[in-house]
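Q: Hi! First time doing this. I have a protein sequence and I read that you can turn it into a structure. Is that right? Here it is:
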Amino acid sequence: MTATAAFDHLPVRSRVVAQVLAAAGVAGAVRGLEVPARTAAEAAAALGCEVGAIANSLVFVSGADAEPVLVLTSGSHRVDTAALAARMGLDGLERATAAQVREATGQAIGGVAPVGHPAPLRTVVDAALADHPKVWAAGGTPHTVFPTTYAELLALTGGTALVVAG
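A: Yes, that's right. Below is the predicted 3D structure, encoded as structure tokens:
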């Protein structure tokens, strides 16, 4: 069986994520959920873990050209966009529209994975995720997730570790 065939049971968007993870040597596999998990609370309930162990993938835009910025934040708090923009040396950050999220990631809000995008995104990984030995991230759809670690998220995304809350 080819590597691609090994992912045939997954939705198309999740196959891309699974292929990126496999190519990077990540042990955690993309898996389906019985119920959709569009929020950190829904994902934590479905997985039986703390909401803080959910790595929310949020897309913001910065500047006149609306450069997308992916923020992987702990599900236990909100992103302070003004503080984060200042830490990143940006004039500001605004929440991306659903269309901007889809364009930047190829995925829909509620299922955005840290990887598997059409092009690499500037990425920030919330330092609070380091408090959890295992974190869960979306697998490209609201029905798929994969287990990972804080260090693995940094390596996979080439992200910058920052505090994202106030």
